[in-house]
Amino acid sequence: MTVSSDPQRVNPLRDPQDRRLPRVPEPCALVIFGVTGDLARKKLIPAVYDLANRGLLPPGFVIAGFARRDWGDGDFENVARTAAMEHARTPWREEVWARLAGNFRFVGGAFDDDAAFDRLHDCLNELRDSHGIQGNAAFYLSIPPAAFPTVLKQLERTGMADNARSGGWRRVVVEKPFGEDLESAKALNDLVDDVVTAEDVFRIDHYLGKETVQNILALRFANSLFEPMWNSKYVDSVQITMAEDVGIGTRAGFYDATGAARDVMQNHLMQLLALVAMEEPTTFDASEIRAEKLKVLRAVVPPKDVTAETVRGQYLTGWVAGARVPGYLEESDVPPDSNTETYAAVRLTIKNRRWAGVPFYIRAGKRLPRRVTELAVLFKKAPHLPFYPEDVELLGNNQLVIRVQPDEGVMLKFGSKVPGTQMELRDITMDFAYGEAFTESSPEAYERLILDVLLGDRTLFPDAAEVEEGWRIIDPLEDAWAGTKPATYRAGEWGPREADEMLAREGRTWRRA
């Protein structure tokens, strides 16, 4: 979509410096498998409404649901309306919903029901004429990983994932987790690539849709201020934290078989590490960015001494936000003898010239004091301080902190003189907050990612090789942890004492997030 250079046709109401010209996809359908689940109800359907509210959906856009329900199109539309009203981030407007109304289709059936998939195939063919989608459809697998192979084989059997047979484009969106180890990830990747061409597979990591994560690239490569210091000569260490104040909720079945490392460290945190540590791409092209991320992941060295360089933890009964909460073993449906970790901290290194000798400390946990995800680059202290020792007692490392959530922004921490008659120095901070600096609100991650799927933009989606490298790093840890008991920490604390000791042995401390 472009603006004409003809002065007679230029929109007089548009600021020529405003680069937010909407990218609108071609007419298409979004097919959601597992449309009755929490992800579809709380994230996907509200994101579709928000995109419509922002004017980013094409005329004739259709959302089709597939699930084991005895619903008609109208029933699905009513459920979608309720979900959008409860969870959408943009204001509710009846005129926006009126544009979506009538564009809902529902097909009921089980994943192993050939007849149901045949009906879905016929439904998409009918939409060519009724809505002009020209065979364009994206299939969103919002389903348990165990069901991926069944659905993919049904798409293959019916030819629904075949671009040539459909007459348009067909794309498949796969939610994490991408396997449960390297072997299963490779098997899943092989299956997906057999059914759909590699260019049409979109592996969702919703963290990459967050505005502040994308801003890592802007911060690093659009400014000359940071790049000269972004290396082992000036950087002391890097800390990446993903803290949650909640427990496991109703996910006991999934979480107890997975644990913190498989749940978020193999995917979310490895992607954040890659963005922080990657080299500058030659162009801002999806293939170039992914190539640089892959180089970093291949250079990551797992801990050689797992006992000294990793910590697993499991929360006990405690207090979070003034409320008493149960321990992990007291959570509903958790086995009383479970050794699953709810906290993991790992020390990693990167084997390349830029980062040689710089430790990357990564931690993730549940029932911590507050919800926060951030990346902190801690710089080395000045080699010489011409001040009296007592004047710099409160002076720490310079830090650049990128807050991913919830208070999105960037914080720079450095030393300054305290006003007064003494030369006393201490750390101060300068903050940039998205909510204060920009009038345009940031889109929710799923909005951006769904839009990119419909546009065919793969920049924010990890490919098969990145997924497999993440498992290459995590699998040795899981093997070493097998049969061991995690350390414990009380809910409301920042993890086990052993995690603090891991950094203390190297003269460092965790940043207070």
UniProtKB/TrEMBL annotation:
A Gene Ontology term for the protein's cellular component: cytosol
Binding site for NADP(+): 68, 176
Catalytic residues (UniProt): 268 (proton acceptor)
PROSITE patterns in the cross-refs: G6P_DEHYDROGENASE
Biological process per Gene Ontology, one example term: pentose-phosphate shunt, oxidative branch
Glucose-6-phosphate dehydrogenase NAD-binding domain residues: 31-215
Enzyme type, top EC level: oxidoreductase
Reactions accelerated catalytically: D-glucose 6-phosphate + NADP(+) = 6-phospho-D-glucono-1,5-lactone + NADPH + H(+)
A molecular function GO annotation: NADP binding
Region Disordered, residue ranges: 1-21
One Pfam family named in its UniProt record: G6PD_C
InterPro entries: G6P_DH, G6P_DH_AS, G6P_DH_C, G6P_DH_NAD-bd, NAD(P)-bd_dom_sf
Chain residues that bind substrate: 206, 210, 244, 263, 366
This enzyme's EC code(s): 1.1.1.49
Pathway linked to the protein: Carbohydrate degradation; pentose phosphate pathway; D-ribulose 5-phosphate from D-glucose 6-phosphate (oxidative stage): step 1/3
All residue ranges annotated as the Glucose-6-phosphate dehydrogenase C-terminal domain in the record: 217-511
Secreted listed as a keyword: no
UniProt keywords, alphabetically: Carbohydrate metabolism, Glucose metabolism, NADP, Oxidoreductase
Domain of life, per lineage: Bacteria
PANTHER family registered for this protein in UniProt: GLUCOSE-6-PHOSPHATE 1-DEHYDROGENASE (PTHR23429:SF0), GLUCOSE-6-PHOSPHATE 1-DEHYDROGENASE G6PD (PTHR23429)
HAMAP family per UniProt: G6PD
Function summary: Catalyzes the oxidation of glucose 6-phosphate to 6-phosphogluconolactone.
Family: Belongs to the glucose-6-phosphate dehydrogenase family.
Descriptive protein name: Glucose-6-phosphate 1-dehydrogenase
Species the sequence originates in: Catellatospora methionotrophica
